[in-house]
Batch of 2 targets.
Target 1
Amino acid sequence: MTQRIRDSRRVRQVHGTRRPRPVRASERAAALLLVPAAAGCATAPPTVPPPVRTTAIAARAPMFAPGAPGVGDPYFPNAGNGGYDVEHYDIAFAYTPRGRRIAGRTRVTATARQGLSRFDLDFVGHRVRSVTVDGRRASFTRRGQELVITPPAGIPAGARFTAEVAYAGSPAQEKDPGLGRTGWIPTSDGAVTLSQPTGSATWFPLNDHPSDKATYALKVSVPKGLRVLANGEPDGRPARHGGRTTFRWRSSRPMAGYLATVAIGKFKVADGRTRDGLRTISAVDPAVTRDPAWLQRTTGAVTGWAARLFGPFPFDSTGGILDDASVGYALETQNRPTYPGTVDTGLLVHELAHQWFGDSVSVTRWQDIWLNEGFATYAEWLWTEQHGGRSARKTFEEAYGRPANSPDWKVPPARPGRKAMFDTFAVYTRPAMMLHVLRTRVGDAAFFGILRAWTAGHAGGNATTADFAALAERETGLELDRFFEAWLFTPARPRQSEIPS
Ligand SMILES: [Zn+2]
């Protein structure tokens, strides 16, 4: 957590403008004490305060400035917002199939990191009905994806505050150049959300950047016959009233905004325990398959396998959501990945490995997304190797066999650029190759020691490429600068000398 704050501050200093240091509430109180408390004095009170004290009050007056419209991520300049950290989202809405509409509100509890005269949330579409800050009506404007909120009074640095946004609309999908449709995806019987990297703003207002993780509560009312799946665990039993059912879910572990999900449909649901005693909730769309047993069983087995390699499962429940949506990719939505249309064991291994790599340990900036995809890809290689399939070494050799002049080697994994941030070879395969080479060089005990130190050291937080390189050097005692330079930062195929035999 400390790491995250330091990193996000550094990003802001590089990309934002310097602001005057805001005055803390305690200082403001001290300044107010300087106002002559003369009303009750027996002697004649001065009609005006002494000039020197007036000056002191003016100099110490609280200074408030607008929060930045982004956290300073070079790949997504407007993603997230500056000036505050969110602790908790409380999202409540009703879904109406006719017109595919939602209506509700989101309550954001945050702490100001500067004196705020105004601040932004990321939110697209919908009609915003009202905004309040700490229960008082706030004014707002919309500028693209920015919902710009001006509270009735400035928010002092360090103060905790709650912003509540009431809204209604028909959520619109986003289009990501690398992925296609993201955000709120309508399905034949409801909707599902797949929000990497910035789709969550299509269905609730948030600080939409993985550097600001928070806990979540979700309350969704749907017509009778539909069910609602989400992250975390159910918070009580579904409540029925007037032909509608209300589902509540709660995520008490920090979650990046893009991993928040809701799935609405006629799901068949299995709710049980893995062999290790972990709660597992799996849901399948009957249009795909009527029986959640395979998904439930395999999820339990893979979760247990991964925990033995990567360290304890980082959340309070696992599972999966298989929905009839043709978006062409699955997503590691926290606790239970979402599989659109189809799923197989390899895909399940990949998305469940993300629970450690990406969900629990999240990127600080999107440029480092190989930290998610390289590990999840290598987990697939490991699963295959340990279950009678091809060895990781063979998979590595096949990938390395691409000609040195192939354009695939031109994209450096830790600096892929916005357009290539989901490049299958550069961001998924090549970092997995790097991990395999590292494992070969240091041996299994040291390699899995690094992985477990990584998942333990940053659990529930954020990390960077530099953090991983430093950890690998610390754990092995090796000087690995040139190794990481060759595998992660160089737009060329690493030389054979970077591959131990
Ligand atoms: Zn992935």
Target 2
Amino acid sequence: MIGTAFRKKVPAMRMSSSIKKINHSKIYHMIYRESKGVSKQEIMRRLGLSLPTVTQKLEELLAEGLVQDAGAADSTGGRRARAFSIVKDARLAVGLDINQDYYTAVLVDLLGSVICSKRQRFPFSQSDDYYRQIGLAVLELIDSVNADHQRILGVGMGVPGLITKDRERVFYGKILGFEGATCREFSKYIPFPCVFFNDAKAAGFAELWNRSDLTDAFYILLSQHVGGAMIRNHQVELGENTRAGEIGHMTMIPFGKACYCGRSGCLEPYCSSAVLSELAEGDLDLFFRSLRGGDPVKKSAWDEYLNILSMAVNNINMLLDCPVILGGSVGVYLEEFMGQLRSLARDRNSFSDSADYLACCQYKVEPIAAGAALPFIDEFIRTI
Ligand SMILES: [Zn+2]
């Protein structure tokens, strides 16, 4: 599971917790890791537990609705044992990705999969109308899968702003002009626990999900806005003032393009997805189709984009010496251009002839919204 820096702190298990509770937890987590289901005999063997203990704990997990009988287990011969698997939708969490022109709402299950999502064009405003609209969106999404409201763990709201450590207030929000906005006002029409998340850190958390290989890395969100998440010891670092990873405002070109932050030459105005989509009627997919079709204007813009991006990734690698993962709406298209980007990054590297530290994101489905929902899932699973 993922570390504590990003998710809400959960009370530590008391030392007096009984062995029974530990076995309950061990069995659930073992079943959780086995997507095809696992038999009672396998649980006994792998955890070194007795038949009565495993039987009793399985009955408890079945009664709690957390585990189900998944039918016959795979067998190499003889009588096929019953297999048990987790109930993926025993609990669900909602994530929102809130932007100037649209919002996206997703529903995530206990495996961290997005089971449904909805994107809606609706201009942001700090108004009762807007809060009512996102409240409706959350309820409609839950009702669309007939999920019992008791199963909803909470709603995470991914926003393009910097959030206080308690996740209750926006303390920097120039993009939406919502500095000082509180989670309380946003969640006025949402009858579940709600918290804010910074968009890039939420997306970085989604990337971490189920990736035990990622100990240290830097995740770059290349979407309508540029942000980052610094991953250390398998957790998203917040930094002293929750501003860690804000690479969108690293100076790349002295006295360069104006940035919304009020400075100039930041990474943001060079590597936002808008730089590309503005050349294709606001349609990023159309930009890449034209680029593949050989459009010279798109080619020139893309070359400049990759050139600046190669500077940023090289700077990050020089500073942190760790993998750099490219995500967000542009990251989804980057796989086919990785050769070109690696070559540019390699040319800037003072120490190595390779840029193998660069990788495309693996979590591609609505990473901001999903990443805002996943801390609720993570916390729930850890407490079982
Ligand atoms: Zn800036």
